[in-house]
Design brief:
Layout: E1 3-9, H1 14-25, E2 43-49, H2 55-63, E3 66-69, H3 75-82, E4 88-91, H4 100-106, E5 111-115, H5 127-134, E6 138-145, E7 155-162, H6 168-191, E8 194-199, H7 203-213, E9 218-224, E10 235-236, H8 242-251, E11 256-259, H9 262-266, H10 269-275, E12 279-281, H11 285-292, H12 294-303, E13 311-314, H13 320-330, E14 337-340, E15 349-350, H14 355-366, E16 377-380, E17 386-394, E18 399-401, E19 406-407, E20 410-412, E21 416-419, E22 424-427, H15 433-452, E23 459-467, E24 472-478, H16 485-492, H17 501-509, E25 525-532, H18 548-553, E26 557-560, E27 563-565, E28 584-586, E29 590-597, H19 601-611, E30 617-618
Parallel strand pairs: 1-2, 1-4, 2-3, 4-5, 8-9, 8-11, 9-10, 11-12
Antiparallel strand pairs: 5-6, 6-7, 13-16, 14-15, 14-16, 17-18, 17-23, 19-22, 20-21, 22-25, 23-24, 25-29, 25-30, 26-29, 27-28
Helix pairs in contact: 1-2, 1-6, 3-4, 7-16, 11-12
The structure holds adenosine monophosphate and glycine.
Amino acid sequence: MTKKVLVFASGNGSNFEAIVKYFYNKGLTCINGKTISDAAPQVIFELLCDKKEAYVLKRAKNLGIRSFYVKFDTLADFLTQQKGDYDLFVLAGFMRILPEKILKILAPAPVINIHPSLLPKFKGKDAIERAFREGVKKTGVTVHYVTKNVDSGKIIEQREVQTAGLSLDGLEARIHSIEHSMYPEIIEKLLFKRRVLVFGGGARENAIAAKIKKSPYLDKLFLAGANDGFKNLGENIEFIDYNDLLKKALTNGVDMLVVGPENPLCEGIADIFNKEGINVIGVNKYWAQLEGSKIFAKKFMQKHGIKTADYKVVTAESELLAALKDFKKRNNNAPPVIKADGLALGKGVSVPDTFDEAESIAKSFLEGKFGKASSRIILEERLSGVEVSIMSLWDGDTLVSFPPASDYKRLLDDNRGENTGGMGAYAPSKILIKQKKQVNKYLKVLQSALKSEKTDFTGVLYSGLMLAKDDAYVLEYNVRFGDPEIQALLELLDDTKGADLLDIFIKMGEKRLNEVDLKFKRTGTYCVTLASSGYPENPEKGAQISGINSALKQGCKVYFAGVKNDCLCQAAENCTSALASCNLVTNGGRVLSLVKSGKNARDIVYRAAETIKYKGKIFRKDIGL
Ligand code: AMP
Ligand code: GLY
């Protein structure tokens, strides 16, 4: 696969040289006819310069790169002749604004530029000097698409530079060195875009897929198990088992798998895909036990001094009474929380109010309420405090976390009613500074624990924390993003500043999470789950849903979970749009998530919740209060 890039430059050309050398060092291009790897060069660079005396022309000559000197007033003619050959146009110190006429000639290949400020600040000339004179605390570098307006196209990536202690020369040197490492990497990612497969069929996976779909680094999106509400976001792959899915993924050139739910992770999907060299965002089978076995998780916590509730393992009914008695003594007569050791569809935790209740629940678990998953249970000390969910990313070396999110697990307002899969979320959680410190301290301990175990997975670790009076205690680990927390958290990621989920995942695969600085909007985000009456035990199904488009128009994001396209129109077989003309009906307990951040977000999200209509609709009214 050979790619061709035309670099536009007018001056010194240090960025041009940095780009060419970066690709040369990776064995991807030639310098003076030579590559450093045996593989044929895959990227051909050419230079276009509008100044006859510019030093960049000399650099090109020294590097053996073909160059063109083109006077600006003949540029349109020149490009018309060259058109069609290039995959990417790169402006690297080109001192001219490209008028619309020229941009039209260059299309459809993208045109990108690098600018030495945090756009939209300090557009145009002398950006570094102007930022310095104004005494800003931070400035930086932006790579963006080029439009006819100066430095105004969509931002691809930004990196910040702190100005403290730097002279103007120092700041310039710092910015240029960032440019030289940042620009080539972005060019590489734009030339070799990713084919990503998202696994899972809920609102969480809808939100993840929608975010990835927006990435400049995506070539093609594939979906496995998507519901009818979002299957139009990508190409759907049907599969029999994970090996079959792997085969089809390889045929389609998929190079990244993002796994939503826990079951496939516990069953080892990451190991299966990793073996074939596919990047997986999701833990391997061994570490999936952090969610798949409460006993495994407890042992991990104990080993690493991670605070968690006191507990006792019970592996047979015959041990139960003695264990309860012992527990009673140890915990001032308070009844224990009962937890199935294994995965139980989110229903394996019970918080009884009396010992009698605890005993009968524990018995039912051990007698096989959840099959093998509850053949071993734990009795756990009941904690009180404020619950938060922390989503962390781990690349084998570095832990990067989202801000705390609040999950609304109970069915009814004021946290009454049954435990559900999640009736809504609010992020960032409204917690005290003292509690934030507890969280940060905990995350440091977690990072060292993961490091000392040499955990080699690339994936997500979700800590369910109880912020008690004295400290943060872990209630549970999950090995995937929380649903609905991640719907809210992804909305907080600030893509106007180039915070790109796929890029974060790419960096995870390269073990470079330490370079990721998650940027978040400074607002709250609300996620409200619309569910069906009868949820969670026995939800109604088959009710026709209307009002989706109006909710979208109101500025709300809609992510689908329990829905089905019941379209009977003639186009049904080829119908890919569940939203436009077809008949979307309810098909599960949690039907969809509504998400909004920013000004009046709560009002907007609740207006949308009213706008969307179907028989049996239920939702909580107190999310984020
Ligand atoms: P899950 O494991 O997501 O089904 O969560 C069950 C819920 O039970 C948690 O979110 C808590 O609200 C509650 N819970 C779990 N463990 C404890 C505990 N040790 N003390 C108090 N509440 C708990
Ligand atoms: N929202 C809780 C979970 O995903 O388990």
